[in-house]
């Protein structure tokens, strides 16, 4: 008779996995690297102010990509900045996440049609986990995007599925 086959009515016993504990600890202390490029960066800073206080979600700003878990790209990404953005992303340790904040970083914004110098979405350079729409999005939208990122971190798994070898069969 194992632990899972018994019924616990007391409510003082919690069953979980080591991966669940690690994900819980990770989602409560995500280190953020800000990549603010335009007017969306002002709204990102407003989310850190006392009225919205994004730090209550465990967000800790870090100056270095080597210390960061999350990159928030806020604003217009030009083609010259795209290579720097990719380099900073590659310097981050795994698991790493990217939040695209605002219309300009999502799809080029109002500059996408006539701006030859504007990247038509940051997802063309780095994989994006959460998109936050708006021009510029309000700080509350960043808070909601952060909660969606936390849900993604909660379900993160390090176990890779087994590769099936159909050729040997």
Tell me what the structure shows:
With 169 residues, this protein is an alpha/beta fold. It contains five helices and five strands. The chain has helices at 18-27, 39-47, 79-91, 103-107, 139-154; strands at 31-36, 60-61, 70-74, 97-101, 130-132. The chain has a five-stranded parallel beta sheet. Strand 4 (97-101), helix 4 (103-107) and strand 5 form a beta-alpha-beta unit. Helix 1 (18-27) runs antiparallel to helix 5 (139-154) and helix 2 (39-47) crosses helix 5.
Summed up:
This protein is α/β, with parallel strands linked by helices and 169 residues long. 31% of the residues lie in helices and 12% in strands.
Set out the fold topology.
Blueprint: H1 18-27, E1 31-36, H2 39-47, E2 60-61, E3 70-74, H3 79-91, E4 97-101, H4 103-107, E5 130-132, H5 139-154
């Amino acid at each position: 008779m194992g632990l899972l086959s018994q019924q616990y009515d007391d409510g003082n016993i919690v069953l979980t996995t080591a991966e669940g504990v690690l994900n819980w600890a990770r989602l409560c202390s995500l280190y953020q690297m800000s990549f603010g490029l335009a007017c969306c960066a002002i709204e990102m800073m407003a989310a850190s102010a006392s009225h919205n206080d994004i730090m209550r979600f465990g967000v800790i700003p870090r100056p270095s990509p080597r210390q960061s878990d999350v990159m928030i790209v806020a604003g217009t990404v030009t083609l010259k900045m795209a290579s720097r953005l990719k380099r900073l992303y590659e310097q981050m340790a795994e698991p790493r996440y990217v939040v695209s904040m605002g219309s300009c970083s999502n799809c080029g914004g109002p500059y996408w049609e006539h701006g030859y110098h504007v990247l038509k979405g940051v997802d063309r350079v780095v994989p994006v986990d959460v998109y936050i729409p708006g021009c510029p999005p309000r700080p509350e939208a960043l808070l909601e995007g952060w909660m969606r990122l936390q849900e993604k971190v909660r379900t993160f798994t390090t176990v890779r599925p087994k590769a099936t070898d159909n050729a040997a069969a």
